[in-house]
Amino acid sequence: MSFEINRRDYLRFAAGGALGAATSGVSLRGLSRLNAALASEEVIVPGGPENWVPSLCSLCPAACGLRVRTIGPRAVRIQGSSFHPVSHGGLCPKGLAGLQVVYHPDRLRAPLRNVGSRKSPRWREISWEEAISTVAARLRRLRGAGQAHQVVWIDRPERNLWSRLVRRFLAAYGSPNYLTMPSGLDAIQTAVYLQQGVTQPVAYDLEGTRYLLSFGVNLLEGWGSPTAVMRAFGRWRDAAAGRRTKFVQIEPRFSMTAARADEWVALRPGTDAAMALGIAYVLITEGLYDAAFVRDHTFGFEDWRDAAGRTHMGFRSLVLSEYRLNDVAVMTGVPAETILRLAREFGQNRPAVAVGDHQTSTLPGHPYAAMAVHSLNALSGSLDTPGGVVLQAELPLKEEEIPPAGKNSWPRLDETPEHHFPGHHLARLPRAILSRKPYPVEAVLLHDVNPVFSLPNGEVFRQSFQEVPFIASFTSFMDETSSLADLVLPAPTGLERWQEAASPPAFPYAVESISPPVIAARHRTRHPGDILLEIAKFLGGQVGAALPFENVEAYLRHRVGDLFAAQTCSVYSTRLDEAWNRLVERSGWWAPTYSTADELWEQMKERGGWWEPTYYYGEWERTARTPSRRFEFYSQTLARWASSRPDFARAVGLEPGDDRLFLPHQPPTVEAPPGYPLLLMPIEVLPLAGGEGGHLPYLQQIAGQHLFATWESWLEIHPETARKLGIRDGDRVSVESPRGRAQVRARLYAGARPEVVHLPLGYGHTEGSRWGRRGVNPMALLDERYDPVAGLAQTSGTHVKVYRS
Amino acid sequence: MIAIAKRISIEKHGIPSLRPLLTGVCVLCLATPLLTAQVQGGGAYFLSGNTKAGMQTFFDKGCARCHAVLGEGGRAAPDLARAPGGNLSAAELVAGMWNHAPAMWEKMRLQRLAPPKFSEEEMTNLFAFLYSVRALDEPGDAERGRRLVAEKRCLECHSLAGQGGRAGPDLRSWASYRNPVSWIQAMWNHAQPMQAMMAARGLSWPQFLGNDMTDLMAYIRTLAANSKGHVYLRQANAETGRELFRQKGCVSCHAIRGAGGSRAPDLGRRALPRTLGQLAGLMWNHAPAMWASMRAQQVPRPQFSNQEMADLIAYLFAERYFEMAGNAERGRRRFEEKGCAGCHTAGAKADTAPDLAGWRGGGSPIPVATALWNHGPLMLEKMRQQEIPWPRFRPGEIVDLLEFLNRGQFSPALAKAKP
User: Fold this and answer.
1) Which of residues 117-136 of B touch A (CB under 8 A)?
2) Does residue B92 have a pLDDT over 90?
3) Which range has highest mean pLDDT (A282-296, A353-367, B368-382)?
4) Residue B74: Cβ-neighbour burial (10 angstroms; 0-12, 13-18, 19+)
5) Fewer beta carbons below 10 Å: N end or C end of chain A?
């Protein structure tokens, strides 16, 4: 069966979808629902003075700058802030839906205590005094009993001032268990650690690149900062500037990103590594790689000999022997001519960048595939160069001394004490809880996370949390994980509280945004930071001394003092000021608009934040901290880590001593088990990026616009596959995996491969918002499998069968 | 970046009145300048303007479509922050614009771009921007820096990433310092032991030319593991620098346009490099000769703080901003030789070239540049029709010509004397 689709086909198909949707009344029903959703407070016209107030979007980690129009006590409109260095006035659909978060009818309105059981919770509103004293007393008792380490905090994977506050609290309290949710960048971050030896967040100078190979990265659908990527996308096609960046999307599905790319290459699922290594084959055989860079800054390109005299296979030998063009064409399903042409283009256009593999906001790829893709960046000499891969600049904050109580030897429960794989092995926590090894868990504190819903082993989380004596959750909406808690501590939404945010994922520059509350808190909610500080004060001693701040505002003001002391960078400003500051800083001068920390604080509140507009490229000693102090095609870091794990080779599927264990290579693809012929690959769409946003009517209305599938999940299935299965567009079908079954409406989509079906993330809640409970959650169908290197959940390898319900 | 204020020396030229543009204080740049100065003294033509407004003009008028500044902008035409090299006065900038104008317009015509028009205020701001941005040092070329470390034999004494000597500190300890002026200052203050050690080892005094210092810095940064935090220089004050020039004893040997000692070159007249960092490097290059002279005169060798060095460099740089007065007689001859008199006749009507008598007392590089852009394409067309070649000017010729026009010696008799 041929598998080709072009932009014209896509448009024709989408138009057909639109027609079908319109005639079937889906859109009209959607509009009706939307109107119903807006019927309450959204349409009330308030009275009072009008203001435009700076703020931050809280709906994804990018934290774009906002200007919020207020009338009296109400926020009535949201716009992008042109001062913000990431978004520059832009907003994605999520940001525009922000008001619906504030005025959502299903928000939590007061602290709740579960007076029922974990399995059958019954909620009773309590006072904040009771809520805080309950948590504080529990923590004090555990600490007094020498069980401080048995407290676990689970948070979002962000490196901001908030995370520093919590980590400091835990360090002073005596727990090593500051655990974070996975991120879609985990695989590439693992590759960067294995090949460059650094744990700093990886970033891309997308605006400066001239050729971009994206291996399944949903660049235009929520990856990194959506507004920053869209801005870069605009610059790639800036004809006035006389340049055109070619953007090639390599992935199995004809996604929205693929549709907007210059070229889409339909790849067989799970063969990203082979594709990258096939491109490497051409670069090497045709001499199109940056030989000087490879010679001066890399290790393991050629075969090499270790101290014991043993010869090891290098990257060149591996690629030339195992990834010949025709072999790769067979593996990937991509014609050899296409691979050859792409490789030549990649090699001849500098700076060229390869991104991947297969990242979204939440779905990581595979570490070996990410290593293979990242190796292309080394071959093109695009590491720490303009238009290349860089390391996100760090905030110049003072490293505060860890209080003595934090210096304990208890291992972390996600089993990551001895290495720096950024895999966030949170998925291993349930096993630790259930086995009570290495020690039992006495308390879990959750902040704005929902692992039961968001992770493939959510059900195991649910079971394990039944065993935890005390759980408290800071959240604005009830969710699947919070419903297991003893206490739910309602947080104000973004516009109602002090907010701060550091650099968004994959953004190169150091950024710190701050915004005061725009409006007063609407319900009996309190800032989690204020609660944490109150608890610290209650605990007293070293904990109280470590967090001597009256409230979050005081803490942020204290940290702004650090920024002032650094004597660099500038407050958010106009594009012109930004360009000028960059020119001036690059030549070693600094022209601040403030002369005291108080002035900086006031200006940050007014403009939205502070940032460093300059990146210093080519600082190689900072960029490569591997044993060889070079980029390592052959990861000695991985070799050293694996040397104490005799089962590692078997887990990878290779023999011990095989050099491929430490080189980028194509990992084996998962074979379909009998009876499950189709591969299920979850997808993320921009309105529900990160699997979040389903509780907002605006986003429900636009989530599946390419198929006009709104307000419910849809199963994308290739028309030919559907025909064979007797499925018509719009039929209700069952999707069944070895783990579970779900019913969903089938949508015929020629952009899906015949052997693959897709379900969008973000649907299928069982708790919380009335609108979030629509559709099915693909995570409930996925196999619980983890890669053997970094322990990342492998979410794209579950096979299913599909049949009419 | 640079704010310079200077009162025009009206009496010197006997000009009875000046256009408002040229009176009072001129501020070249921002509300938060790196260099600020209130410099009094001789000089004929100067510019006022706002650097950031000039940057806006640079982008708004489409200059950035073809030209870049320090790499920001188009690639079709030279980077105006880098080319031409050397310290570029307003007259030199005008001369460059004038001479290349026909080629620019032709390129724009091929791209169907209309040549932009400027008000004098916009042109003033644009000049301010270009002058300021040209003073900025570039980040440096690490690869060239690597070669320079070997050529300059830095590692005979200093260590660098575990290699080299131990007599001097590891150069990486300075990696966070982002301004070449800071490096020169540090070297200057430690120059005495350096000089002795180099003499003992038979090493010659290293010279830093062009971007040598920034290239070295770029290379050393590649070897620094921790670049967290950057040390920049805050805005320099040229007025303070002027005072330092006196306090530190510089004035006892050097003069600035005739005011000061005569044992060393007049720094107001000597050709200077383009950037502030390069100017600091020049100071370093001549340090041994300076110190020898100072020793002979029993003048103590001055030490500078980081900011003092910046202020001093700013002062020297600011002094170079002002054009020396031209020579009216030479200007008259240029007016004839270049063929200007053939069209710009006295009492000319609108359909021919305008009467330049109106420029009396108001000639400066700004109106010339403004007129060039606003009327140049038409002028070129007319000249082509009459097969008159486009005249080309050297910077000094522009200044002379302006002086000639300013003095109002443009007479009908002269105008009729066609070449």
Assistant:
1) 133, 136
2) no
3) A282-296
4) middle
5) N
For residue A789, is it within any domain? no
Mean pLDDT, range B12-29, rounded to an integer: 27
Contacts of B177 in chain A (CB under 8 A): 588
**Do the chains contact at A618 and B137, CB–CB below 8 Å?**
no
Chain A contact for B30 (CB, 8 A cutoff): yes
Q: What CATH number does residue A149 fall under?
A: 3.40.50.740
Is A579 found in the same domain as A643? Answer: no
Is A240 close to B65, i.e. CB distance below 8 A?
A: yes
Q: Do A583 and B72 touch (CB under 8 A)?
A: yes
User: Are both A369 and A419 inside the same structural domain?
Assistant: no
Q: Say if A683 falls within a structural domain.
A: yes
CB B136 to CB A568 under 8 A? no
| A556-560, A658-662, B287-291: least confident range | B287-291
A413-421 contact pairs (CB < 8 A, 24+): A413/A152, A413/A177, A413/A179, A413/A438, A413/A441, A414/A177, A414/A179, A415/A791, A417/A176, A419/A641, A420/A193, A420/A199, A421/A190, A421/A193, A421/A789, A421/A790, A421/A791
Q: Do B178 and A588 touch (CB under 8 A)?
A: yes
Nearest residue in chain B measured CA to CA from A393: B228
- Domain count along chain A: 3
B313-335: average pLDDT: 79
Residues A208 and A176 in one domain: no
A621/B223 CB distance under 8 A: yes
- The residue extents of the domains of chain B are 5-134+326-416, 142-222
Q: Could you say which of A240, A568, A576 has the minimum Cβ distance to residue B56?
A: A576
Domain encompassing residue A277? 197-393+630-662
- Residue A580, pLDDT > 70, answer yes
ipTM value, please give it: 0.83
Report yes or no on A378 lying in a domain: yes
Same domain, A438 and A572: yes
Inform me whether the pLDDT recorded for A83 exceeds 80: yes
Q: What is the pLDDT of residue A797?
A: 77
**Residue B284 clears pLDDT 60, i.e. is over it:** yes
- We report the CATH number of the domain holding residue A366 as 3.40.228.10
- A194-212 as b/e: b if 16+ CB within 10 A: bbbbbebbbbbbbbbbebb
d(CA A396, CA B112): 48
User: Do A525 and A645 sit in the same domain of this protein?
Assistant: no
Taking 50 as the threshold, does the pLDDT of residue B32 lie above it?
Answer: no
Q: Are residues A559 and A652 in the same domain?
A: no
Query: Which residue of B112, B174, B222, B234 is the best one to mutate when testing the A interface, meaning the one whose CB has the most A CBs within 10 A?
Result: B222
- Statement to judge: residues A341 and A484 lie in one domain: no
Residue A202 lies in a domain: yes
Closest CA to B328 of B411, B266, B384: B411
Residue A285: burial class (beta carbons within 10 Å; 0-12, 13-18, 19+):
middle
Q: With an 8 Å Cβ cutoff, is A657 touching chain B? A: no
Q: Do A585 and B30 touch (CB under 8 A)?
A: no
